[in-house]
Amino acid sequence: MKKVILTGVRPSGNLTLGNYLGAIKNFVDRQEQYDSYIFIADLHAITSPKDPQKLKEAVYNCVAMYLACGVDPKKTIVFKQSDVLEHGTLGFIMTFQTKMGELSRMTQFKLKSQQQTKEGVDTGLFVYPTLMVADILLYNTSIVPVGKDQQQHVELTRDLAERFNKRYGQTFTMPDVYVAPVGNKILNLQNPLEKMNKSDSGDNKGTIFLMDDIEVAKKKIMSAKTDNLAHVHFDEENQPGISNLMSILSKITDEDFESIEKRYEGKGYGEFKKEVAEVVAKTLAEIQAKFKQFNNKDMLDKILSNGAIDAQKVASQTLKRAANALGLN
Ligand code: TYM
Questions:
Q1: From the CB of 311, is ligand 1 less than 6 Å away?
Q2: Which of 113, 150, 251, 256 measures 20 to 30 Å from 129, CA to CA?
């Protein structure tokens, strides 16, 4: 039997180059080796109030983008989290296995709750990780490819799976996180101390969206903040901007940092940025051409409804096992 790979994206805005390089590409590269599940984490998108119509559109957009990035629904089960009710139930159960302190220590919670101090912090933000725990455990997942920012949540999943198995008997498979060595934290091009995010405070100049106009995307790379050391060199601490562009280039082309450094010895940043811009432009052009082809709601609905049936079969077994272990049925 093949092991299971699973990942998900929150439909909270247009997908970025960070989402693609940090998670989706790593999933796509492995979808044939594993039993593969990819989902749209729409329940995770309602942790704060959302415009319902925009959320629906974002879900379609996210599925079409998965396909455009190479997810093959013949090889991978593609589904929407809210279609499989077991996520909510197991999420609820796993919340009860968790200490307040464990959730308070989550870096994402600490960061995001700071931005919500005015009107009070949403509970959704706090219990967000335990729903992720359920997402992962329901499918007997062995490997979870995510960006660096989500690593802690997968580690929490391991802790809770182990705690549950110890208390109630072997129920869950222990998942491993896969954070790729290169491109696990693509940085904002204008502020390379921050992660590239779907929501970009600096009028989107620091974020490459997968649907960006190609010329606009190239300009964003050309005007990326760097430094005045005039030396293409991988040094995340002292040259975060250049290192970020090197990571983007290396992740797309597979060329290692040493080789990039050698090619650019004695050359300026302009030439280097131009190459990165061209490589990114080519990647976006390929994705966008496929996106157009897949952006068909009837087809996407079909993929999602088939995916939900397949996913639910596995999820319901796991939930039954967990409920049995707890003495709930
Ligand atoms: P989300 O929607 O914030 O991001 C989706 C995936 O993209 C990765 N990512 C990045 N990687 C590198 N550089 C970046 N700048 C960058 N920005 C985002 C994220 O690490 C993530 O892997 N909670 C998750 C969705 C989720 C999930 C799950 C993932 C819900 N349940 C279960 C895996 C397994 C999230 O909000 O990702």
A1: no
A2: 251
4-184+296-326 topology per CATH: Rossmann fold (3.40.50)
Q: Which atom of ligand 1 is nearest to the CA of 198?
A: 17
Is 11 near ligand 1, meaning CB less than 6 Å away?
no
**CB 147 less than 6 A from any atom of ligand 1:** yes
Q: How far is CA 40 from the centre of its chain?
A: 10
CATH superfamily placement of domain 214-291: Tyrosyl-Transfer RNA Synthetase (1.10.240.10)
CA distances in angstroms from 102 to 127, 128, 136, 152, 249, listed in the order given? 10, 12, 18, 11, 36
**Identity (one letter) of the amino acid at 184?**
N
Catalytic residue positions, numbered: 112, 195, 198
Q: Measure 145 CA to ligand 1 centroid, in angstroms.
A: 9
Ordered by start, the domain boundaries in the chain are 4-184+296-326, 214-291
